[in-house]
Design a protein that fits this description.
alpha/beta; 5-stranded mixed sheet; Adenine-n6-DNA-methyltransferase TaqI, Chain A, domain 2; Rossmann fold; binds S-adenosylmethionine; 9-stranded mixed sheet; 2 domains
Length: 495
Amino acid sequence: MREAGTPVAEPGALDRVRLEANRQLIPERKAELGQFMTPESVAKFMAGLFSQRTGAIRLLDAGAGVGSLTAAFLDRWGADDVCATVYEIDGKLASYLRETLRAYGSETFEATVIDRDFIQDAVYRITMGRKGAGFTHAILNPPYKKINSGSQHRALLRAVRLETVNLYTAFVGLAIELMALSGEIVAIIPRSFCNGLYYKPFREWMLAKASVEHIHLFHSRTSAFNDDEVLQENVIIKLVRGKEQGKVTITTASNIGFSDMKAYDYPFSEIVHDGDQQKFIHVPVAPSHSDLDGVPLADRSLEEIGLEVSTGPVVDFRLKEYLCETPEEGTAPLLYPTHFVGGNLEWPRQSKKPNAMMDNPETRKWLYPMGFYTVTRRFSSKEERRRIVAHVVDPAAFKGDAIGFENHLNVFHSGKRGIDGDVAHGLAVFLNSTAVDDYFRRFSGHTQVNATDLRLLRYPGRRDLEELGQWAQVQGDLTQELIDYRLAVLHGRAK
Ligand SMILES: C[S@@+](CC[C@H](N)C(=O)[O-])C[C@H]1O[C@@H](n2cnc3c(N)ncnc32)[C@H](O)[C@@H]1O
Protein backbone atom coordinates (compact mmCIF):
# COMPACT_ATOMS: atom_id res chain seq x y z
CA MET A 1 0.00 0.00 0.00
CA ARG A 2 1.30 3.47 -0.86
CA GLU A 3 2.34 5.93 1.79
CA ALA A 4 0.66 9.31 1.89
CA GLY A 5 2.91 11.92 0.37
CA THR A 6 4.30 9.79 -2.48
CA PRO A 7 2.92 10.80 -5.86
CA VAL A 8 1.52 8.00 -8.03
CA ALA A 9 2.63 9.56 -11.27
CA GLU A 10 6.17 10.81 -11.96
CA PRO A 11 6.50 14.58 -11.50
CA GLY A 12 5.10 16.45 -14.48
CA ALA A 13 3.16 13.46 -15.83
CA LEU A 14 -0.20 14.94 -14.93
CA ASP A 15 0.80 18.23 -16.45
CA ARG A 16 1.44 16.35 -19.71
CA VAL A 17 -2.02 14.68 -19.52
CA ARG A 18 -3.52 18.07 -18.80
CA LEU A 19 -1.81 19.65 -21.79
CA GLU A 20 -2.72 16.74 -24.08
CA ALA A 21 -6.36 16.90 -22.98
CA ASN A 22 -6.24 20.66 -23.32
CA ARG A 23 -5.16 20.39 -26.96
CA GLN A 24 -8.11 18.15 -27.73
CA LEU A 25 -10.69 20.48 -26.26
CA ILE A 26 -12.92 22.31 -28.69
CA PRO A 27 -12.26 26.05 -28.24
CA GLU A 28 -15.94 27.09 -28.11
CA ARG A 29 -16.72 24.39 -25.58
CA LYS A 30 -13.62 25.36 -23.63
CA ALA A 31 -15.03 28.84 -23.07
CA GLU A 32 -18.57 27.51 -22.63
CA LEU A 33 -17.54 25.13 -19.84
CA GLY A 34 -14.76 27.25 -18.39
CA GLN A 35 -12.20 24.54 -19.06
CA PHE A 36 -8.97 25.97 -17.69
CA MET A 37 -6.86 23.40 -15.92
CA THR A 38 -4.78 23.79 -12.77
CA PRO A 39 -1.00 23.37 -13.23
CA GLU A 40 0.57 20.61 -11.14
CA SER A 41 2.55 22.93 -8.86
CA VAL A 42 -0.59 24.89 -7.97
CA ALA A 43 -2.58 21.68 -7.39
CA LYS A 44 0.16 20.47 -5.05
CA PHE A 45 0.13 23.76 -3.14
CA MET A 46 -3.64 23.56 -2.78
CA ALA A 47 -3.57 19.97 -1.51
CA GLY A 48 -1.00 21.05 1.09
CA LEU A 49 -3.39 23.59 2.59
CA PHE A 50 -5.69 21.01 4.21
CA SER A 51 -5.23 20.25 7.91
CA GLN A 52 -3.56 17.01 9.01
CA ARG A 53 -5.96 14.15 8.22
CA THR A 54 -7.52 12.38 11.15
CA GLY A 55 -9.67 9.58 9.70
CA ALA A 56 -11.79 8.53 6.76
CA ILE A 57 -12.16 11.13 4.02
CA ARG A 58 -15.17 11.94 1.84
CA LEU A 59 -13.71 14.10 -0.91
CA LEU A 60 -15.52 16.30 -3.43
CA ASP A 61 -13.97 17.60 -6.66
CA ALA A 62 -16.61 19.40 -8.72
CA GLY A 63 -15.59 20.28 -12.29
CA ALA A 64 -12.66 17.91 -12.04
CA GLY A 65 -11.22 18.12 -15.58
CA VAL A 66 -8.56 15.40 -15.94
CA GLY A 67 -8.38 15.07 -12.16
CA SER A 68 -5.29 17.16 -11.38
CA LEU A 69 -6.69 18.35 -8.06
CA THR A 70 -7.94 14.99 -6.80
CA ALA A 71 -4.62 13.41 -7.82
CA ALA A 72 -2.68 16.07 -5.93
CA PHE A 73 -4.92 15.49 -2.92
CA LEU A 74 -4.42 11.70 -2.99
CA ASP A 75 -0.68 12.11 -3.49
CA ARG A 76 -0.51 14.33 -0.44
CA TRP A 77 -2.88 12.54 1.93
CA GLY A 78 -2.93 8.95 0.64
CA ALA A 79 -5.82 7.05 -0.95
CA ASP A 80 -6.62 4.74 1.97
CA ASP A 81 -10.02 5.28 3.48
CA VAL A 82 -10.85 7.86 0.86
CA CYS A 83 -14.19 8.02 -0.88
CA ALA A 84 -13.98 10.54 -3.74
CA THR A 85 -16.94 12.00 -5.61
CA VAL A 86 -15.78 13.78 -8.76
CA TYR A 87 -17.98 15.64 -11.21
CA GLU A 88 -17.02 16.35 -14.82
CA ILE A 89 -19.64 17.23 -17.37
CA ASP A 90 -17.42 16.85 -20.46
CA GLY A 91 -17.38 13.21 -21.60
CA LYS A 92 -13.88 13.39 -23.09
CA LEU A 93 -12.38 14.86 -19.94
CA ALA A 94 -14.34 12.38 -17.82
CA SER A 95 -12.55 9.48 -19.56
CA TYR A 96 -9.12 11.06 -18.83
CA LEU A 97 -10.36 11.54 -15.29
CA ARG A 98 -11.29 7.86 -14.88
CA GLU A 99 -7.81 6.96 -16.11
CA THR A 100 -6.17 9.30 -13.61
CA LEU A 101 -8.13 7.79 -10.73
CA ARG A 102 -7.51 4.18 -11.77
CA ALA A 103 -3.85 4.65 -10.80
CA TYR A 104 -4.89 4.87 -7.12
CA GLY A 105 -5.31 1.19 -6.33
CA SER A 106 -5.92 1.03 -2.59
CA GLU A 107 -8.57 -1.46 -1.43
CA THR A 108 -10.15 1.22 0.69
CA PHE A 109 -10.18 3.82 -2.06
CA GLU A 110 -13.47 4.38 -3.75
CA ALA A 111 -14.07 6.88 -6.57
CA THR A 112 -17.34 7.81 -8.21
CA VAL A 113 -17.05 9.79 -11.42
CA ILE A 114 -20.29 11.62 -12.19
CA ASP A 115 -20.41 12.98 -15.73
CA ARG A 116 -23.41 15.21 -15.15
CA ASP A 117 -24.07 18.83 -14.22
CA PHE A 118 -22.82 19.45 -10.68
CA ILE A 119 -25.26 22.28 -10.06
CA GLN A 120 -28.27 20.16 -10.92
CA ASP A 121 -27.02 17.24 -8.86
CA ALA A 122 -26.05 19.33 -5.83
CA VAL A 123 -29.35 21.23 -5.80
CA TYR A 124 -31.17 17.90 -6.02
CA ARG A 125 -29.17 16.49 -3.10
CA ILE A 126 -29.80 19.58 -0.98
CA THR A 127 -33.51 20.01 -1.70
CA MET A 128 -34.25 16.29 -1.38
CA GLY A 129 -32.33 16.04 1.88
CA ARG A 130 -29.85 13.60 0.29
CA LYS A 131 -26.67 15.24 1.56
CA GLY A 132 -25.74 12.17 3.57
CA ALA A 133 -23.00 12.68 6.13
CA GLY A 134 -21.51 15.48 4.03
CA PHE A 135 -18.05 15.82 2.53
CA THR A 136 -15.05 16.20 4.81
CA HIS A 137 -12.88 17.75 2.09
CA ALA A 138 -13.46 19.59 -1.19
CA ILE A 139 -10.80 20.66 -3.66
CA LEU A 140 -12.06 22.85 -6.46
CA ASN A 141 -11.12 24.74 -9.57
CA PRO A 142 -14.65 25.39 -10.77
CA PRO A 143 -15.64 26.73 -14.19
CA TYR A 144 -15.83 30.53 -14.53
CA LYS A 145 -18.76 31.80 -16.52
CA LYS A 146 -21.56 34.28 -16.05
CA ILE A 147 -24.91 32.78 -15.12
CA ASN A 148 -27.67 34.54 -17.07
CA SER A 149 -30.65 35.68 -15.08
CA GLY A 150 -33.17 33.62 -17.05
CA SER A 151 -31.09 30.43 -17.14
CA GLN A 152 -31.91 27.05 -15.67
CA HIS A 153 -28.84 27.30 -13.43
CA ARG A 154 -30.15 30.53 -11.93
CA ALA A 155 -33.52 28.95 -11.22
CA LEU A 156 -31.90 25.88 -9.64
CA LEU A 157 -29.70 28.00 -7.41
CA ARG A 158 -32.67 30.10 -6.33
CA ALA A 159 -34.33 26.90 -5.15
CA VAL A 160 -31.61 26.60 -2.47
CA ARG A 161 -31.55 30.41 -1.90
CA LEU A 162 -28.12 30.88 -3.42
CA GLU A 163 -28.26 34.10 -5.45
CA THR A 164 -25.19 34.31 -7.56
CA VAL A 165 -24.01 35.48 -10.96
CA ASN A 166 -21.14 33.18 -11.88
CA LEU A 167 -20.58 29.43 -12.07
CA TYR A 168 -17.55 29.61 -9.83
CA THR A 169 -19.41 31.12 -6.87
CA ALA A 170 -22.28 28.70 -7.51
CA PHE A 171 -19.86 25.75 -7.26
CA VAL A 172 -18.20 27.05 -4.07
CA GLY A 173 -21.56 28.01 -2.52
CA LEU A 174 -23.01 24.56 -3.18
CA ALA A 175 -19.85 22.82 -1.97
CA ILE A 176 -20.10 24.75 1.33
CA GLU A 177 -23.67 23.52 1.69
CA LEU A 178 -22.64 19.92 0.99
CA MET A 179 -19.87 19.84 3.60
CA ALA A 180 -19.99 18.14 6.97
CA LEU A 181 -19.33 20.29 10.03
CA SER A 182 -15.58 21.20 10.08
CA GLY A 183 -15.31 20.07 6.45
CA GLU A 184 -12.52 21.92 4.62
CA ILE A 185 -12.71 23.48 1.17
CA VAL A 186 -9.73 24.64 -0.86
CA ALA A 187 -10.65 26.39 -4.10
CA ILE A 188 -8.86 28.39 -6.75
CA ILE A 189 -11.18 31.09 -8.05
CA PRO A 190 -11.10 34.57 -9.58
CA ARG A 191 -10.73 37.44 -7.16
CA SER A 192 -13.89 39.19 -8.33
CA PHE A 193 -16.08 37.81 -5.52
CA CYS A 194 -14.00 39.77 -3.00
CA ASN A 195 -15.30 43.18 -4.03
CA GLY A 196 -17.79 42.79 -6.87
CA LEU A 197 -21.15 44.34 -5.94
CA TYR A 198 -23.11 41.46 -7.46
CA TYR A 199 -21.26 38.98 -5.27
CA LYS A 200 -22.58 40.41 -2.01
CA PRO A 201 -25.18 37.61 -1.49
CA PHE A 202 -22.43 35.05 -2.11
CA ARG A 203 -20.08 36.74 0.39
CA GLU A 204 -22.88 36.72 2.96
CA TRP A 205 -23.60 33.06 2.27
CA MET A 206 -19.96 32.09 2.55
CA LEU A 207 -19.19 34.12 5.68
CA ALA A 208 -22.32 32.92 7.47
CA LYS A 209 -21.59 29.24 6.89
CA ALA A 210 -17.80 28.97 6.94
CA SER A 211 -14.68 30.59 8.31
CA VAL A 212 -12.01 31.98 6.02
CA GLU A 213 -8.71 30.38 7.02
CA HIS A 214 -6.30 31.23 4.26
CA ILE A 215 -6.17 33.30 1.10
CA HIS A 216 -3.35 33.00 -1.38
CA LEU A 217 -2.91 35.76 -3.91
CA PHE A 218 -1.08 35.53 -7.21
CA HIS A 219 0.50 38.91 -7.98
CA SER A 220 0.66 38.57 -11.68
CA ARG A 221 -2.50 38.46 -13.74
CA THR A 222 -1.25 35.67 -15.94
CA SER A 223 0.94 33.57 -13.70
CA ALA A 224 -1.62 31.07 -12.39
CA PHE A 225 -2.60 29.66 -15.75
CA ASN A 226 0.34 30.26 -18.04
CA ASP A 227 -0.58 27.87 -20.79
CA ASP A 228 -4.16 29.09 -21.01
CA GLU A 229 -3.30 32.77 -20.88
CA VAL A 230 -6.32 33.39 -18.72
CA LEU A 231 -6.29 37.03 -17.76
CA GLN A 232 -7.83 36.49 -14.40
CA GLU A 233 -6.56 37.54 -11.08
CA ASN A 234 -6.89 34.41 -9.02
CA VAL A 235 -6.93 33.58 -5.37
CA ILE A 236 -6.78 30.28 -3.56
CA ILE A 237 -9.10 30.25 -0.60
CA LYS A 238 -9.43 27.79 2.26
CA LEU A 239 -12.76 27.66 4.09
CA VAL A 240 -13.91 25.55 7.03
CA ARG A 241 -17.60 24.79 7.40
CA GLY A 242 -19.13 25.94 10.69
CA LYS A 243 -15.83 26.93 12.31
CA GLU A 244 -15.65 30.10 14.38
CA GLN A 245 -13.75 32.80 12.51
CA GLY A 246 -10.22 33.43 13.77
CA LYS A 247 -7.12 34.93 12.18
CA VAL A 248 -6.66 34.70 8.43
CA THR A 249 -3.38 33.67 6.83
CA ILE A 250 -2.55 35.60 3.67
CA THR A 251 0.18 34.32 1.39
CA THR A 252 1.41 35.93 -1.80
CA ALA A 253 3.74 34.76 -4.55
CA SER A 254 4.58 36.13 -7.97
CA ASN A 255 4.91 32.77 -9.70
CA ILE A 256 3.39 29.33 -9.74
CA GLY A 257 6.58 27.81 -8.36
CA PHE A 258 5.81 29.75 -5.11
CA SER A 259 9.54 30.50 -4.86
CA ASP A 260 9.06 33.96 -3.36
CA MET A 261 6.08 33.14 -1.18
CA LYS A 262 5.42 35.28 1.90
CA ALA A 263 2.94 34.53 4.67
CA TYR A 264 1.29 36.87 7.18
CA ASP A 265 -1.54 36.42 9.66
CA TYR A 266 -4.22 39.10 9.97
CA PRO A 267 -7.10 39.64 12.37
CA PHE A 268 -10.37 39.01 10.52
CA SER A 269 -11.38 42.66 11.04
CA GLU A 270 -8.64 43.65 8.58
CA ILE A 271 -10.05 41.26 5.97
CA VAL A 272 -13.74 42.14 6.38
CA HIS A 273 -14.11 45.49 8.08
CA ASP A 274 -16.47 45.76 11.05
CA GLY A 275 -19.85 47.10 10.07
CA ASP A 276 -19.15 46.89 6.33
CA GLN A 277 -22.58 46.32 4.80
CA GLN A 278 -21.03 45.12 1.55
CA LYS A 279 -18.83 42.57 3.32
CA PHE A 280 -15.92 43.34 1.00
CA ILE A 281 -13.04 40.92 1.39
CA HIS A 282 -9.73 42.76 1.54
CA VAL A 283 -6.60 40.88 0.69
CA PRO A 284 -3.80 42.98 2.18
CA VAL A 285 -0.56 42.98 0.26
CA ALA A 286 2.63 42.04 1.98
CA PRO A 287 5.64 43.85 0.66
CA SER A 288 9.10 42.94 1.79
CA HIS A 289 12.45 44.56 1.58
CA SER A 290 13.47 42.92 -1.67
CA ASP A 291 10.11 43.60 -3.33
CA LEU A 292 10.76 47.28 -3.01
CA ASP A 293 13.85 47.41 -5.15
CA GLY A 294 11.99 49.71 -7.48
CA VAL A 295 11.19 52.10 -4.66
CA PRO A 296 14.28 54.11 -3.82
CA LEU A 297 15.51 54.02 -0.25
CA ALA A 298 12.43 52.29 1.08
CA ASP A 299 13.57 49.78 3.62
CA ARG A 300 12.02 50.91 6.90
CA SER A 301 8.80 49.90 8.51
CA LEU A 302 6.48 52.66 9.68
CA GLU A 303 7.21 51.68 13.25
CA GLU A 304 10.94 52.09 12.66
CA ILE A 305 10.41 55.70 11.62
CA GLY A 306 8.10 56.36 14.56
CA LEU A 307 4.88 56.76 12.58
CA GLU A 308 1.48 55.12 12.43
CA VAL A 309 -1.34 55.19 9.95
CA SER A 310 -5.08 54.90 10.68
CA THR A 311 -8.35 55.27 8.88
CA GLY A 312 -9.96 58.65 9.59
CA PRO A 313 -12.06 58.08 12.74
CA VAL A 314 -15.05 60.27 11.81
CA VAL A 315 -17.76 58.06 10.29
CA ASP A 316 -20.15 60.81 9.26
CA PHE A 317 -23.46 58.93 9.14
CA ARG A 318 -22.93 57.82 12.74
CA LEU A 319 -22.03 61.29 13.99
CA LYS A 320 -24.59 63.35 12.05
CA GLU A 321 -25.70 65.33 15.06
CA TYR A 322 -22.21 66.77 15.59
CA LEU A 323 -21.48 67.83 12.01
CA CYS A 324 -21.57 71.48 10.91
CA GLU A 325 -21.76 72.93 7.45
CA THR A 326 -19.53 75.90 8.28
CA PRO A 327 -16.78 76.31 10.86
CA GLU A 328 -17.81 78.45 13.81
CA GLU A 329 -17.02 78.97 17.49
CA GLY A 330 -16.81 75.66 19.36
CA THR A 331 -16.15 73.53 16.27
CA ALA A 332 -13.06 71.82 14.85
CA PRO A 333 -12.25 71.63 11.12
CA LEU A 334 -13.36 68.37 9.51
CA LEU A 335 -11.53 67.14 6.41
CA TYR A 336 -12.95 64.97 3.63
CA PRO A 337 -11.17 63.91 0.39
CA THR A 338 -13.23 66.59 -1.35
CA HIS A 339 -11.24 69.28 0.48
CA PHE A 340 -8.16 68.37 -1.52
CA VAL A 341 -8.55 69.80 -4.97
CA GLY A 342 -5.67 68.92 -7.30
CA GLY A 343 -2.68 69.15 -4.98
CA ASN A 344 -4.19 71.90 -2.81
CA LEU A 345 -6.28 72.20 0.29
CA GLU A 346 -9.57 74.01 -0.28
CA TRP A 347 -11.20 74.44 3.10
CA PRO A 348 -13.85 75.45 3.96
CA ARG A 349 -15.45 74.42 0.70
CA GLN A 350 -19.01 74.74 -0.50
CA SER A 351 -20.11 71.20 -1.27
CA LYS A 352 -22.52 68.59 0.07
CA LYS A 353 -20.00 67.70 2.78
CA PRO A 354 -19.74 69.42 6.16
CA ASN A 355 -16.63 71.48 6.91
CA ALA A 356 -16.55 71.17 10.68
CA MET A 357 -17.54 69.14 13.67
CA MET A 358 -18.52 70.18 17.17
CA ASP A 359 -15.54 70.19 19.51
CA ASN A 360 -16.58 69.18 23.02
CA PRO A 361 -15.58 66.55 25.60
CA GLU A 362 -17.92 64.05 23.96
CA THR A 363 -16.51 64.45 20.44
CA ARG A 364 -12.83 64.71 21.42
CA LYS A 365 -12.33 60.95 21.03
CA TRP A 366 -12.89 61.32 17.27
CA LEU A 367 -10.61 64.35 16.89
CA TYR A 368 -6.82 64.66 16.66
CA PRO A 369 -4.80 67.54 18.19
CA MET A 370 -4.07 70.23 15.60
CA GLY A 371 -0.73 69.65 13.88
CA PHE A 372 0.98 68.45 10.70
CA TYR A 373 -0.39 65.22 9.19
CA THR A 374 -0.05 63.42 5.88
CA VAL A 375 -3.30 62.04 4.51
CA THR A 376 -4.18 59.79 1.57
CA ARG A 377 -7.50 59.05 -0.04
CA ARG A 378 -8.87 55.56 0.52
CA PHE A 379 -10.73 55.45 -2.78
CA SER A 380 -9.50 56.60 -6.14
CA SER A 381 -11.37 56.22 -9.38
CA LYS A 382 -10.03 53.79 -12.02
CA GLU A 383 -9.32 56.78 -14.26
CA GLU A 384 -7.17 58.54 -11.68
CA ARG A 385 -3.50 58.55 -12.60
CA ARG A 386 -2.26 57.31 -9.28
CA ARG A 387 -3.76 54.90 -6.76
CA ILE A 388 -2.10 56.59 -3.81
CA VAL A 389 -2.75 60.32 -3.62
CA ALA A 390 -1.17 62.01 -0.59
CA HIS A 391 -1.58 65.52 0.81
CA VAL A 392 -0.06 67.46 3.68
CA VAL A 393 -2.31 68.94 6.34
CA ASP A 394 -0.63 72.15 7.53
CA PRO A 395 -1.99 73.56 10.83
CA ALA A 396 -1.35 77.11 9.58
CA ALA A 397 -4.49 76.79 7.43
CA PHE A 398 -6.79 76.34 10.43
CA LYS A 399 -7.77 77.86 13.73
CA GLY A 400 -8.32 75.90 16.93
CA ASP A 401 -6.48 73.07 18.61
CA ALA A 402 -8.22 69.97 17.19
CA ILE A 403 -8.99 68.58 13.76
CA GLY A 404 -11.24 65.79 12.40
CA PHE A 405 -10.48 63.33 9.60
CA GLU A 406 -13.36 61.66 7.87
CA ASN A 407 -13.37 57.94 7.25
CA HIS A 408 -12.52 58.14 3.52
CA LEU A 409 -9.03 59.39 4.42
CA ASN A 410 -6.06 57.53 5.86
CA VAL A 411 -4.02 59.60 8.32
CA PHE A 412 -0.33 59.30 9.15
CA HIS A 413 0.23 60.32 12.77
CA SER A 414 2.38 59.59 15.76
CA GLY A 415 0.47 58.19 18.72
CA LYS A 416 -2.67 60.00 17.51
CA ARG A 417 -0.82 63.32 17.46
CA GLY A 418 0.67 65.44 14.69
CA ILE A 419 4.03 64.69 13.07
CA ASP A 420 7.08 66.78 12.18
CA GLY A 421 6.28 69.20 9.33
CA ASP A 422 9.27 68.25 7.19
CA VAL A 423 8.52 64.55 7.61
CA ALA A 424 4.86 65.17 6.65
CA HIS A 425 5.95 66.87 3.42
CA GLY A 426 8.62 64.23 2.69
CA LEU A 427 6.15 61.44 3.22
CA ALA A 428 3.69 63.03 0.77
CA VAL A 429 6.44 63.33 -1.87
CA PHE A 430 7.42 59.71 -1.37
CA LEU A 431 3.82 58.43 -1.50
CA ASN A 432 3.07 60.49 -4.62
CA SER A 433 6.02 59.06 -6.56
CA THR A 434 5.55 56.87 -9.61
CA ALA A 435 7.76 54.21 -7.99
CA VAL A 436 5.34 53.74 -5.07
CA ASP A 437 2.37 53.76 -7.43
CA ASP A 438 3.93 51.08 -9.66
CA TYR A 439 4.72 49.03 -6.62
CA PHE A 440 1.21 49.31 -5.24
CA ARG A 441 -0.41 48.36 -8.55
CA ARG A 442 1.70 45.22 -8.72
CA PHE A 443 0.31 44.08 -5.40
CA SER A 444 -3.29 45.15 -5.38
CA GLY A 445 -6.12 44.84 -7.82
CA HIS A 446 -8.09 47.37 -5.79
CA THR A 447 -8.55 51.03 -6.45
CA GLN A 448 -8.92 51.16 -2.69
CA VAL A 449 -5.91 51.93 -0.48
CA ASN A 450 -6.48 50.92 3.11
CA ALA A 451 -4.50 51.74 6.22
CA THR A 452 -3.40 48.07 6.30
CA ASP A 453 -1.82 48.40 2.85
CA LEU A 454 0.03 51.54 3.96
CA ARG A 455 1.10 49.87 7.19
CA LEU A 456 2.76 47.12 5.17
CA LEU A 457 4.62 49.43 2.82
CA ARG A 458 8.31 50.19 3.38
CA TYR A 459 9.44 53.80 3.78
CA PRO A 460 12.64 55.84 3.57
CA GLY A 461 14.40 56.63 6.85
CA ARG A 462 13.41 59.73 8.85
CA ARG A 463 16.37 61.84 7.76
CA ASP A 464 15.69 61.16 4.11
CA LEU A 465 12.04 62.06 4.63
CA GLU A 466 13.01 65.31 6.37
CA GLU A 467 15.35 66.19 3.54
CA LEU A 468 12.70 65.37 0.94
CA GLY A 469 10.22 67.49 2.87
CA GLN A 470 12.56 70.50 3.12
CA TRP A 471 13.22 70.26 -0.59
CA ALA A 472 9.47 70.01 -1.39
CA GLN A 473 8.62 73.14 0.57
CA VAL A 474 10.86 75.39 -1.56
CA GLN A 475 9.79 73.99 -4.93
CA GLY A 476 6.54 75.78 -5.68
CA ASP A 477 4.47 73.51 -7.93
CA LEU A 478 5.49 69.88 -7.47
CA THR A 479 5.08 68.09 -10.80
CA GLN A 480 5.24 64.30 -11.16
CA GLU A 481 8.49 64.66 -13.12
CA LEU A 482 10.04 66.72 -10.36
CA ILE A 483 9.02 64.22 -7.66
CA ASP A 484 10.33 61.24 -9.62
CA TYR A 485 13.55 63.06 -10.49
CA ARG A 486 14.20 63.97 -6.87
CA LEU A 487 13.63 60.39 -5.71
CA ALA A 488 15.94 59.12 -8.42
CA VAL A 489 18.63 61.52 -7.17
CA LEU A 490 18.23 60.23 -3.62
CA HIS A 491 18.35 56.67 -4.90
CA GLY A 492 21.54 57.38 -6.86
CA ARG A 493 23.21 58.73 -3.76
CA ALA A 494 22.22 55.70 -1.75
CA LYS A 495 23.75 53.20 -4.16
C1 LIG B 1 -11.70 25.39 -14.59
S1 LIG B 1 -11.88 23.72 -15.11
C2 LIG B 1 -10.90 22.95 -13.91
C3 LIG B 1 -10.64 21.53 -14.10
C4 LIG B 1 -9.90 20.84 -12.98
N1 LIG B 1 -10.61 20.97 -11.74
C5 LIG B 1 -8.54 21.41 -12.81
O1 LIG B 1 -8.31 22.03 -11.80
O2 LIG B 1 -7.68 21.25 -13.67
C6 LIG B 1 -13.55 23.40 -14.76
C7 LIG B 1 -14.08 22.08 -15.22
O3 LIG B 1 -15.46 22.03 -14.89
C8 LIG B 1 -16.17 21.35 -15.91
N2 LIG B 1 -17.56 21.81 -15.84
C9 LIG B 1 -18.09 22.94 -16.38
N3 LIG B 1 -19.39 23.06 -16.06
C10 LIG B 1 -19.68 21.97 -15.29
C11 LIG B 1 -20.87 21.53 -14.63
N4 LIG B 1 -21.99 22.26 -14.72
N5 LIG B 1 -20.82 20.39 -13.91
C12 LIG B 1 -19.67 19.67 -13.83
N6 LIG B 1 -18.54 20.03 -14.43
C13 LIG B 1 -18.53 21.18 -15.14
C14 LIG B 1 -15.44 21.75 -17.19
O4 LIG B 1 -15.65 20.81 -18.22
C15 LIG B 1 -14.00 21.83 -16.71
O5 LIG B 1 -13.32 20.63 -16.93
